[in-house]
Design a protein that fits this description.
With 357 residues, the protein is an alpha/beta fold. It is built from nine helices and 15 strands. The chain is globular.
Length: 357
């Protein structure tokens, strides 16, 4: 039987696989100093229990747990003059930050939402597991449950919580992982290009230059990245659309959805939903799962259905409420929990450089 290391050698090449595994071993449990942020709360496991206890003392823990299970389906309209006509109405199902081994009830809700949902491709923008190091079998089991309800083709990238050792198992499930790689999608005699980069937030193993160089001139291209923090590089490299996650929209937010922290270096206007930078459109998913503690406050989890259009003459995309399915009774909102009104498509926000999160 071929072990994971040999599988990675065959998949990535011996040198690439050795470098990628070595970077993980050197840094995967590091709390200070690695990656784009200096401090990484998700790696400081002793503080997680403190956060849970504080939420219990304030009476917010139960409410947050219920909210974390109440994943919503959002619909997002993306208009681009460069989109080939054959891709008018093309639909991309976007799942991010599943943290499948921590977020079991949320994964149940995701399965409920995606079953019988119509889309053309599905993309997963990283953070499949809860912890940042150690065993990952439970995370793969959780992902496999969700994957069984998804239609192909499926494409994914790794997040800062993920190990490259997960790649063979994920690809065995039928998820084509893009590790600084690009694929062409054909439709009606025309094509678009879908690229994916390895984790750019913590391990810093992304290579936008490599994938951008493989995009033909004037071709429509989409970049998958776990983090939106590379928005400048992506826009200057000529990508038309960036799909990302990582921020969780703050996960625990003040009333009005104001994040306490995004754990990212980027303008707060890019922390959740639609945004634009130069000629590139972007979308940051707040994620379906939860990190550190399985709670959500004033920041409902989501999966997203992106509709691509060549022009703005097609009218508005139907609101999410028109495609949502009823929630199971055990997921209903307890008294005093976050509002569960159906939320229409996110509207683009103006991104202002220099307003770091």
């Amino acid at each position: 039987m071929i072990d994971v290391s040999q599988r990675l050698d065959e998949r990535l090449g011996r040198i690439h696989a050795r470098q990628r595994l070595g970077i993980e071993e050197d840094h995967e449990a590091q709390v200070f100093g690695q990656g784009l942020n200096f401090f990484h709360l998700e790696n400081w496991y002793s503080i997680h229990a403190v956060i849970r206890n504080v939420l219990r003392l304030t009476g917010l823990y139960g409410r947050g747990r219920h909210n974390a299970a109440r994943v919503q389906l959002r619909v997002n309209k993306i208009v681009s003059a460069g989109l080939p006509r054959a891709f008018e109405g093309f639909r991309i199902l976007h799942l991010s930050d599943l943290h499948a081994d921590m977020s079991g009830p949320a994964m149940d809700r995701v399965i409920e939402l995606v079953t019988d949902l119509d889309y053309d491709v599905c993309v997963l923008t990283g953070d499949f597991r809860a912890k940042t190091f150690g065993p990952f079998g439970a995370a793969l089991t959780g992902v496999a449950r969700v994957r069984a309800s998804l239609k192909g083709p499926l494409y994914g990238v790794l997040g800062n919580h993920d190990t490259v050792r997960m790649v063979p198992a994920l690809e065995d499930m039928g998820i084509r992982m893009l590790l600084n790689e690009i694929v062409a999608i054909d439709r009606g005699g025309e094509r678009i290009h879908l690229a994916g980069i390895d984790d750019a937030h913590f391990f810093r193993v992304d290579n936008i230059e490599k994938v951008a160089a493989e995009v033909p001139a004037d071709a429509y291209s989409i970049l998958l990245s776990h983090t939106p923090e590379i928005y400048r590089q992506a826009a200057h490299a000529g990508f038309d659309l960036l799909l990302a996650g990582h921020t969780h929209g703050g996960q625990i937010c003040l009333p009005g959805g104001i994040p306490i922290t995004l754990s990212s270096k980027l303008p707060r206007s890019m922390g959740a939903g639609s945004w634009k930078h130069r000629d590139m459109a972007g979308y940051t998913s707040v994620g379906a799962g939860s990190s550190v503690v399985a709670v959500r406050l004033n920041c409902p989890p989501e999966i997203t259905l992106h509709h691509l259009h060549c022009s703005d003459l097609v009218g508005p995309v139907p609101y999410a409420k028109r495609v949502q399915k009823p929630r199971n009774k055990d997921l209903t909102n307890p008294e005093g929990a976050d509002s569960d009104q159906d939320i229409p498509e996110r509207q683009p926000k103006k991104a202002t450089d220099g307003q770091e999160g």
